[in-house]
Amino acid sequence: MRRVAVGVLLLICLGMAHVFLLENTSRAQRVLPQPQDSGYVLPGPLLRLIAGEFRGLAADIYFLKGLVTFGRTLEQRVEDAEKEQVWQQVFALLDAATDLDPYFFDPYYFANASLSRNPAMVPKINTMLEKGLYLRDWDWMLPFYLGFNHFYYLQDNVKASEYLMLGAQRPNAMPLLTTLAARLAYKGNRTENAIGFLRGILSKTEDEKTRELYQTRLEALEKIFYLERAVAYHLEQFGDEPKDLQALVRRGVIPEIPADPYGGSFFIADDGSIQSTSDLVYAKDGK
Question: What is the dihedral of CA 131, 136, 138, 142, to 10 degrees?
Fold first, then answer.
């Protein structure tokens, strides 16, 4: 009998909560200026002021409006000129949702997954992602998105590596971020940055197998940095760049050419960078 009474009480409470939620949602919709089809959305600070205590609900409303607006472009044939306008409107709605609640993950995810189909939108998407980057300081996904966007769309390996380094140091980040960050730093001629980053990661890594993989990559990058400095010294002392690494040995800059831990041989590429026949930038860890 007691269990029945408790069950009835719970149902009553759930019903009251549901009514309260509907009432609040209705009030929020009445208070908020509704997004117009023109695509204009009020600035974030003003929206936050108007929404007041309903910021969370308002963020949901704008996010859902963005989903519906984007969905229409998939259901209907939209001319390119009109499609551009719709994409801008969807972004404005998602951006408004994150202005209202910068901790709300879904608008960031949807914007990056869907709007990046139009590469011209990527700089705007990155601006939105930056909004939540440090507020959601436990989240490795936002720096991962930023890193990918800078690498794939903007061809900026240096910025990509910086974002991936940030993401790799956050809780529960996938281990692959560490390797990707180090590779991109090296490709962006930031070998020293990659070394410092890997040393920091190693100091926090307890798993022995993972430590071994990181240590091998660190060893390779340290040897590359050693050779990079040797080439710079050669230029400073002799006034020209060495044609090959053997020139460094012949002129006494280094005693010998270090071995690549991935099994290849280091050499000076046409662009002056130090590379290896093992293609260590893309080498699979553990091989």
Answer: -40
Beta bridge partners of 276: 266
Domain ranges of the chain: 27-120
Of 238, 237, 224, the closest CA to residue 272 belongs to 224
Provide the pLDDT confidence category of residue 287 given band limits of 50, 70 and 90: very low
Q: How far apart are CA 209 and CA 69, in angstroms?
A: 48
pTM reported for the whole predicted model: 0.73
Compute the average pLDDT of residues 146-159. Answer: 93
What's the CA angle centered on 166, arms 180 and 228, to 5 degrees?
55
Asked whether 230 and 254 are in contact (CB, 8 A), the reply is yes
Separation of alpha carbons 147 and 240, rounded Å: 36
Question: Nearest 5 degrees, angle CA 35-CA 39-CA 44?
Answer: 65
End-to-end CA distance of the chain: 67
| DSSP annotation of 82 | H
Q: At what angle do helices 176-187 and 191-204 cross, to 10 degrees?
A: 160
